[in-house]
Amino acid sequence: MVREATPVARRARRWIAGATGALLAAGSLALAGPGAATAVTPGSLLVSYDFSESSGTVAHDLSGGGRDGAVVGGAAWRGGFMQLNGSNYVKLPDNLLAGRSAATIVVETNPTALTGAKFLWNIGGSGEGATGQFFIQPVAPRVAISKTNWSAEQSVTSATKLAEGRWQSVAATIAKNANGTTSTLRLFIDGVQVAEKTDSTTNLSDLTTHTLNFLGKSAYTADSLYQGGVSSFRVYTEALSAQDLAGLAETDASAAAAETAAALDLDAANTQDLDAVETKLVLPTTGGVTWSSSPAGVIAADGTVTRQASDTVVTVTGTATVRGKTATKDFTVTVLAAPTPAEAAQRDLDAIALANADDVRSDLTLPTTGARFGSTLSWSSSAPAVVDVAGTATVAPGVVTRPAERDTTVVLTVTATNGGATATREIPLTVRRAPAQAATTDYLFAHFTGTEGSASDEQIYFATSRDAVTFTDTRTSGNPVLSLARNQGDGGVRDPFLVRSPEGDRFFLIATDLSIFYRGGWGNANATVTGSKFLVVWESTDLVDWSEPRFVDVASGIPNAGMAWAPEAIWDEVTQQYYVYWATRADGNTELGDSVDVYLSTTRDFQTFSTPVKWIDRQGSIIDTTVIKVGDWFYRASGDGQITIERSKKLDAITTSATAKTTGTDQEWVLVGTLQSILSGSGTCAAGTNYTGACLEGPEFFQYNDDDRGAATQLWGLLADQYGAGKGYLPFRTTDIGSTSASAWSKATNVNLGTLKKRHGGILPITAQEYQRVMFHYAGVGTNPDLAVEATATTRCIAGKATLVVSAKNADTRAADVTVRTAFGEKTFTGVQPGKTVSQAFATKLASIGADFVDVGATASGASFQGSAAYEARTC
């Protein structure tokens, strides 16, 4: 079938607009301009895609041959080119070069991630099937051909490398030599030959399988997909000359420049309104884009904004330059007048948002610099004994000491100073009473499951246990307790870790934002390069009612970060903050070998994080670190080719060494041992007796509850995911984490982890009431340990004195004893029936009382309620 000529004309218009004077017509190519080639042989053009579509999944062939390509994994049209994003590729027609002895393949591309194993394109068959392939590997870069697979490749590598972030013409030619038995391979970058092999013993005609033709996909399923823009793709049935390819490179440069300029979108790149610009603009530079503006002095080339005395309309011009060819696009933005110092101070105050101000249960993060205009912020507290705003040399301001009797209101006053002007704002806080902390007797296990075979595999599941020996799944497969929708983050969530606040009544669940299922499997995922730099955070005060998931950016500030995986956190009572750690691949940001390292940040609220630091840098990849504190020592286990256990008294000590250090001070992280060495592991992953990183990952420490450690003085568990055998978690126990003796360590062979496969998660010791609550709400087992009580408090004047009236309704189905405690007395009501309301008036004997809270508690058989009710100030 021959297609209509309309798409051809469309491409011709684009090229003419780019001032190239080139015209691509069905079956031939005419070139004009400096260094132009003579016309390519008529009929030599076999396939031509210009990627100018705006919708659909078809890359239309402009050669006239009707050889359309199919976009797989989601089309990403960019108004003239397509973005290959690590999750998509183009399936080329089968038998494209079947029976041919010569060919040229030319791609205009803008690579975005030149790391790892990937192909720019593949012609022929598969590597796994050893059916032969012809391809370009862009990272080297090299062109190769094989009759079978990698073991028989005929290959030539260029000393000239491709560059990320700019358009390049990448061409390969192959042609049989005059002897009829060998072929010559050539590689061209930007129209210049950079590599040649004249004696390839594999010829194009030797390839007999032609069903795995791809643009952006490898011949090996384990390889990642290519990442980069593609502006044009052409296949010829002859080996074009250097002069021909130089002319094509010139033609494509103009088109790529025009397309890059046309695709610029400042609205999409910026969160602030372009009609009301106040802060630095994001000016995209990918594809060789530079920026200028008029009038000068308002918006700099890097987007820095200098606000003027009045609103200023600025023309911002993006210029795309590709091999000397340029194209521009203008944007009109309005930069608002610079605020006065007083306005700047006020806007910095307005931007302050303290986490959980209406439900304070732990320490606060108090900013000292205004988020918008850099005002200096200072704080005072109406109750310094409850909320401290001074801090110490080791502890930041914002430490909260919760009252013992009932909730209280604390007013923080923040003053912003900017250029001599000041402004103040009062922020009322509701600080909850300190809870009575019951002993932990049971366990909650958060995990994900499965083998990425469905969207529900990579979500959050809970299991419980009374003894850490027998675990019960609270939900069946496909019915997670927490999950992400397809349009939330990556659509999947893995590696969950549960964190209990030091006060005991706030929980955070942190996890990896990743769906291998939606990314098309590990072979296509490219997840370490294009993964999310955000962590997923859920928050709860009772383990069953969870906030909506929030996505916190922890890794974008790391140069070349590709993902943020396997997060965990531990509270440090010395500095009164959580230390959060995770693995990030950051090419070029490593001192030793592999780019996957562990990074560390601090937070108090899992909303505001400190700038991450590289915490562990190994020669090889390191990931999945877990930390537990025993006495004065911190112990950590990591996956670094082994399951390596280290210890230190300084949690945030930086480790940069090829392997774990075997000697050092107690202020450094020093090797204890590996699971393999301690337990004398050997054999295979399938046998479950090999404890190296080749078989195990995702180590997780936890401490056994006192009632479950038997005769041991102390007992800890260590779980490791048997990813090498696909078996889920393997449990170990130790009576001494710091020991290297097998007598202190053992594989826990009597543990039953339940029906669902348990993959990288974490175990949290919980109280009996928390266990009962989780089982009731998630598994539908037992009774609800939480009574439903509704409490109110009001004030009134009686005989010139303030009176406090407290009412409590038993909204449960069980009779309950209700106790009301106030600053003016307390009252207990016994046997309050379901649906009944009881009230008590408390005479204050005061003409005026301030706003405060009353404490309301209730108990029934196996259930309880603890809450409060606020009342307003009253003057009589």
Q: Concise description?
A:
The protein is mainly beta. The chain is built from eight helices and 53 strands.
What is the element layout, followed by pairings?
Blueprint: H1 6-17, E1 23-25, E2 28-30, E3 45-49, E4 58-59, E5 69-72, E6 82-85, E7 89-91, E8 102-111, E9 121-124, E10 133-137, E11 142-146, E12 154-157, E13 168-176, E14 183-189, E15 192-200, E16 214-215, E17 227-236, H2 242-263, H3 266-269, E18 289-294, E19 312-322, E20 325-335, H4 341-350, E21 376-381, E22 408-418, E23 421-431, E24 442-448, E25 461-465, E26 471-473, E27 493-500, E28 507-513, H5 522-525, H6 527-530, E29 534-540, E30 550-553, E31 565-572, E32 577-585, E33 596-603, E34 613-617, E35 623-630, E36 633-639, E37 643-648, E38 655-656, E39 670-674, H7 675-678, E40 697-703, E41 716-721, E42 729-734, E43 745-747, E44 759-766, H8 768-779, E45 789-798, E46 801-810, E47 816-822, E48 825-832, E49 837-843, E50 848-849, E51 852-860, E52 863-871, E53 874-875
Parallel strand pairs: 34-38
Antiparallel strand pairs: 1-2, 3-17, 4-5, 5-7, 6-17, 7-16, 8-13, 8-17, 9-10, 9-16, 10-11, 11-12, 13-14, 14-15, 18-19, 19-20, 21-22, 22-23, 24-25, 24-44, 25-26, 27-28, 28-29, 29-30, 31-32, 32-33, 33-34, 35-36, 36-37, 37-39, 40-41, 41-42, 42-43, 45-46, 46-49, 47-48, 47-51, 50-53, 51-52
